[in-house]
């Protein structure tokens, strides 16, 4: 076998790389979507601050471990429409999706560690991590 074919043969034998070792869980999907919504909301507030409807939208600093997050999501979806800003409609669609996932599909996977509605008004400084009970 020639030395030039060896790397090609090794690539073929290795097969395609694995995208994810395991499918996402309900919890990981909720966590990822809440982080995505928070980032999109902050980006929207930074890029469209002069739009009146964007200025009056509720701030979204989501923590899926806070019981008040469900009310926060409902309030955001019920806020007035922004017909001029397509990004607001896209954000509201994501918020609806997260609310549906949290309230229906993944309800049993949720563990609320807080019941502090004021905590959702400010950026999250520390990510909540569940303690590891293994020794």
Write up this protein.
The protein contains five helices and no strands. It has 135 residues and is an all-alpha fold. It has one domain. Helix 2 runs antiparallel to helix 5 and helix 4 runs antiparallel to helix 5. The longest helix is centred in the N-terminal third of the chain and has 22 residues. The chain is extended, with a radius of gyration of 21 Å. The termini are far apart. The model has no long low-confidence stretch (mean pLDDT 79). It comes from Lipotes vexillifer. Keywords: Signal.
Keywords:
135 residues; mainly alpha; CYTL1; Cytokine-like protein 1; signal
Give a quick rundown of the structure:
Helices cover 49% and strands 0% of the residues.
H/E topology pattern: HHHHH
Q: List how many beta strands DSSP finds.
A: 0
**Number of continuous helical runs:** 5
Sheet/helix structural class:
mainly alpha
| Share of residues in strands | under 5%
> Biggest β-sheet, characterized?
none
What best-fitting shape do the alpha-carbon axes yield?
extended
Gyration radius, in Å = 21 Å
Number of domains: 1
State the share of residues found in helices, binned by percent. 40-55%
- The overall pLDDT average reads 79
Gap between N and C termini: 52 Å
Q: Which residues form runs of ≥5 with pLDDT under 50?
A: none
InterPro entries: CYTL1
Signal peptide: 1-21
Keywords: Signal
Protein name: Cytokine-like protein 1
